User: What shape does this take?
Amino acid sequence: MRKITRQVAFEGGWDTDRAEKMSDLFNSLAPEWAERSNEAREAPIADGLARGELPLDGRWLELGSGTGSGTRVLRERVDSVVACDLAAEMLANAPADLAPRVQCDASTLPFSTNRFDAVLMVNMLLFPSEVDRVIAPGGSLLWVNSLGSQTPIHLPPADVVAALPGQWMGLTGKAGSGFWLALHKVLG
Ligand SMILES: C[S@@+](CC[C@H](N)C(=O)[O-])C[C@H]1O[C@@H](n2cnc3c(N)ncnc32)[C@H](O)[C@@H]1O
Assistant: This one.
């Protein structure tokens, strides 16, 4: 997963075969996925939302929302959230009342350019050009690795910034078992 994470972020390493394998993997993990969630893993999401100078009154998109543990933390603080995941079973095991759930591949998002004020990604692959495309100028990205550098889908803050097109400014912090990175797209 480490290798795939870097290939997707830096080399466009994604195709239909990889998407199918990833979807199969997470569909198979979906029934028990929610049991992995705990306070220590959710702490960096809550802390990032509290201290990351993020647009809590804006339109949010969560990519790779899984069974909704991050969506729940986000929805406690934000009114407008759309949750997306590649794996239908992950979405099926997420609470229906948290946010509209959209099954899609984050490499080709079904949203217009500049549609969102902010994107949340918790332990999710980074598709730099699509993330940049859907975030409006001046908008934000909250990147969380809930087990820090031990997270299987992990990129350190400097690599997230390096992978994204354009200019981003941000701050980072640690909480619970992980870290967060809040980036703000510099108006160009
Ligand atoms: C490690 S899990 C994290 C799930 C959730 N964010 C959490 O922390 O519990 C990664 C998630 O990303 C989803 N995912 C992987 N590749 C994706 C893609 N190309 N587009 C959308 N979701 C994807 C998987 O289906 C899975 O639900």
In short: Residues 2-185 form a domain with the Rossmann fold fold (CATH 3.40.50.150). The chain has one domain: 2-185. The radius of gyration is 15 Å. The pocket of S-adenosylmethionine is lined by residues 22, 26, 63-66, 69-70, 84-87, 90, 105-107, 122-125, 146, 153 (CB under 6 Å).
